[in-house]
Every structure is written in structure tokens, then in C-alpha cells.
Amino acid sequence: MATSLRALFILLLSLYGSEGGLRFASYYGDHMVLQKAPESAVLWGYGPEGAHVTLTLSGPSQQRTSLADVTNGIWRVTLDPVAAGGPYNVTAAAQDSTAALTDVLFGDVWLCGGQSNMWLQTSKIFNASDELRIAEKYPHIRIFMVGLNQSKTEETDLIQVELPWSVPPTNVADFSAVCWLFGRYLQKTLQYPIGLVESCWGGTPVEVWSSPRALQQCDLQQVGSSPEKNSVLWNAMIHPLLNMTVKGAIWYQGEANTVYHQEKYSCSFPAMIDDWRLAFHHGSGGQTSLHFPFGFVQLSTYRIGSKSNGFPNIRWHQTADYGFVPNSRMQNTFMAVALDLPDETSPYGTIHPRDKQDVAYRLTLGARAVAYGEVGVSFQGPFPTQITLLSKMINVTYDQKVRVTPSKDVFEICCTEGHAPCGPESAWVSSPIMQQGPTTVLLTSDVCPPAEEVSGLRYAWRDWPCDFKACPVYSASGVLPAPPFIAKRSQSVGKQEV
Predict the structure, then answer these.
(1) Measured between alpha carbons, how far is residue 465 from residues 304, 307, 357, 394, 403 in Å?
(2) Tell me, what's the pLDDT at 1?
(3) Which end of the chain is more exposed for a tag (fewer CB within 10 A), N or C?
(4) Dihedrals φ, ψ of 279, to 5°?
């Protein structure tokens, strides 16, 4: 009954607007950021049926007046492209009714999604007081949070707004730390407005954020034993945003899928990205790029000493089993490796590390290189281009110069009899680093039993592979950790072949 009443209320609002007049859709508001040129921003809202809506934009640059008719209770306007800057006032007028937005900026709009590590608030991270104190220095970053709601059907508009568009420091304490820091670091480079839209929910698998179309690509359209129902957050918290023109998205999720449809994640995650891109492109009338940049955080850590393959498997699946991005399956993507940022004393549980500054910074490097094409920005950690089995040694050659520290157990080799392939029951044995070169690491292979031989190699293949910023292989600058990899005999894996 409650659902029916809510649906009726939304229908009445859509037909008659607020107080029988004109209004903007829920996620437009004072202080917001609209997508800048070369894309065009889309604005829409509700009004009396058949009314003629005139939309005007007043501010630093002149804009032609836009006209739209109200059809099925909804009007919609696509602006001419507007250069970065502001502030602007936006006014919609029809008959004796007006609706207005004030202090509107034009810049880049980024959507931030995922589960609880994206949700973790700025007030909860390391150096939170410092972050909140300096937030007021970034008035051209504007933040907005979608309310937590589920729906069995695709909603036209948001059911609830959790935080309206705000000017820092207002509401920054309760806003996603990763999203805020990503925007703050990015704005320092871009020097124009950034709009951040947070839409995330803790403990959720990728299936609830995916449309039925995306799930069908991976044979996941059946609900099965999921504690959530497929697509319910796509319906309520993503689908309503599709009319918005966005620059790109960042994502922090996957922990829930370590125990739910883990084996499907290498399909379901890329499929979700593809589907979001297509849906936002169509929803915005072609204004949001069909290939908009998508960044994500590779899972950090959870249980120290755990022998479970859940986290390592999902990290691998996050890259569509390539080990790095961008790749041929996941183009125009970027990744922040986070397995070297554990937090054993986190009061929010070890699954929620408080160092979100490094996470956001690594994401920003990827955005600068991939989304903005900035030349000379390193954003990928070292990844093998060749693995060679020598007499009692294994030579790993990386795609860049490396900084290496001693390790006895982060590299592991698979030992099998004869030419048997590595399997679930195979033994993985620690292989110490013996030597290093500018781009190479030399490991001992003399650890297999006499009757067995090396059939595979893996790196950092554990839930919690190393202490804080203490994994053995980084970029030469020491900034970017090498991501985990797994390679088996005669199997091409990403950039390498064993």
C-alpha cells in the first residue's frame, strides 16, 4: 500500500508540478554544477500539461532562450554548450509560474558510485579535521548525494535527495571521502568547477546496480539467493540520473561480490560499465559520451593472514582478468590499486581503511591521463611484459622501471608434477626475490619438490599481501604499487606470456 501511495504522489507531482506550477527535477538545485562545453547540459522538470516553458540562462555569457512544451507532465531542454565558469541563474517560466536555480556553475560532473568504501564519509578518514578545515577553500567544487532507496521498477526521478547541492564546507563531513578528495585533487589541476554526485550503498553487490540488460549479458537475470534484488538500486539511484550530462564516473565496490557470484564478476562488472555508458548516452540525448571515462578502486584488504582467494579473485576480475586497465575489454578505464593501504586499527573495521587520500590521488592520476589526456602522467603501476623460466630462476620483466624491496613470500610459484596445469588443489610456494634490475625481478624457482616443476607464478595473491605501503614492487618513483597478477604455463595473461 505504501509503495502504491508513493507512486501516486510522484505521478501527481509529475502531472501538476509543485503547487500546480513549474519545478525542476529533484537533482537540479541552487549551487549545482552543470556539464560544461563541448557537451551540452540537459535540464528537465515538471509542469502543467501542455504548458509552453521558456528557459533563460543569465550570467557571464549570453545564451539563447530555450523553449519546450510540457508533455505527459514533463518538460526538457538541452542548452547550447557553455564554457566553464559562472555563476549563472537559470529560470523556467510558463504561464503564471516560474522555477529558478541560482549560483549555477558550469564544469565537469562526475558520478561516484559503489558500496561502503565509497560511502565512507570525509569525517571518518585520517586527518579528517584538516580536510574539513580546508574544504572552504574549494567553493567551486559542489556536492550532491542521492538518497538510499530501492525500487522494483525504473524510476523517472529520484525518490529522495539525501544532501542537496552544497558549497563547501557545508555537508562535506557527511559526503563520500573518496569522491570529495578525487574532486579536490582534480580541481587543483583543472582550475574550473567540478560537480560531484554520490550514489552508493554499503554492502551491495554489482547486480543491484546493474540493469536487466547488463545482467542478461552474464546470465545473471535470475535473482537466486541474493540478499538484495537485482537492479533495485539501478532502478532507484542510477536510472533517474540518466538525463544528466556527465563527464565520467568513479566506482569503489566489489567486497560484496567476494561471496556472491564471485566467478561472474569478470563479466558483470565490465557489462555494468558498458550498460551505464550506453544508458547515460541515450538518456542525455547523446550529450554524455558513449565511451565516458570510468575509474575504479581495486579492492584493498580485509583479513590479515586470510587464505581465502575471495579478494584476490575479485581484484583480478575487476580488470576482466587482464590484471591492468585500460585493456581491450575495458577501454577508457583507469584503476587505483589499494592493496598496499591496509588499516589494522580502523574503528570502522579493517574492511574500511581510513587512508582515502592515497586512493583518491591514484584515481586522480588515472583521470588526468585517461579522461583528460594529460601527457606524461604516470597512472599505472608496474606490470610484467615477460616471465621467463631459467635454470632454478624466474626472470620477471616489467613494463617500466621499478623500485624493489626484499620479499620472501609475496611472489609465489605453482608446483605440479610433469606438465600438469595449476588447479585448485595445486601447491603455491613462496619464491623469494634474489636479485633485481632496473626493470626486472629475479626469483628462485628452486623451491618445488624434486618431482615437480614450475607451472605458474603469482604476485600479491592474498587478501592482505603486505603492510602499509610496503609491498615489494612499486614504480621507480615509489608512488604506484604493482597490481597483483597470476600467470600459468603457456597461458597469455594481459601483457605477459609464460
Answers:
(1) 8, 10, 20, 20, 17
(2) 41
(3) N
(4) -70, -45
Residue type, 288: T
Write down the pLDDT at residue 52.
96
**137 Cβ contact list (under 8 Å, min separation 6):** none
CA distance 242 to 282: 8
Task: Please give the backbone phi and psi of residue 347, each rounded to the nearest 5 degrees, phi first.
Answer: -70, -10
pLDDT number for residue 228: 59
Cβ neighbours for 79, distance < 8 A, ≥ 6 positions apart: 34, 40, 41, 42, 43, 55, 57, 63, 66
Helix axes 177-190, 356-366, angle to 10 degrees: 50
Cα–Cα distance, 110 to 39 (Å, whole number): 14
Q: Which of the residues in the chain have pLDDT under 70? A: 1-20, 222-228, 424, 490-498
pLDDT in the model for residue 490: 56
Cell triple for residue 136? 572552504
Query: Which of 25, 357, 27 shows the shortest CA–CA distance to 166?
Result: 27
- Chain Cα centroid distance, residue 195: 15
What is the Cα–Cα distance from 97 to 186, expressed in whole angstroms? Answer: 39
Q: How far apart are CA 111 and CA 194, in angstroms?
A: 11
How far is the C-alpha of 348 from the C-alpha of 354, rounded, in Å?
A: 9
Q: Residue 52: how many CB atoms within 10 A of its CB?
A: 13
SS3 309: coil
Report the distance separating Cα 411 and Cα 422, nearest Å: 16
Distance CA 252, CA 250 (A): 7
Structure-block grid coordinates of residue 382: 608496474
Name the 3-class secondary structure at 126.
coil
Q: Kindly state the cell numbers that stand for 462.
A: 592474498
The CA distance from 244 to 27, in Å, is 9
Q: Say what the pLDDT of residue 89 is.
A: 97
Q: Is the bond preceding residue 382 a cis peptide, omega within 30 degrees?
A: no
Ramachandran region of residue 275, left (φ > 0), alpha (ψ -120 to 50) or beta? alpha
CA distance linking residue 87 with residue 64, whole number of Å:
17
Within 366-439, strands assigned E span 384-390, 393-398, 402-404, 411-417, 427-430, 433-436
Query: To the nearest 10°, the Cα dihedral for 370, 254, 313, 304?
Result: 110
Q: Are 340 and 466 in contact (CB under 8 A)?
A: yes
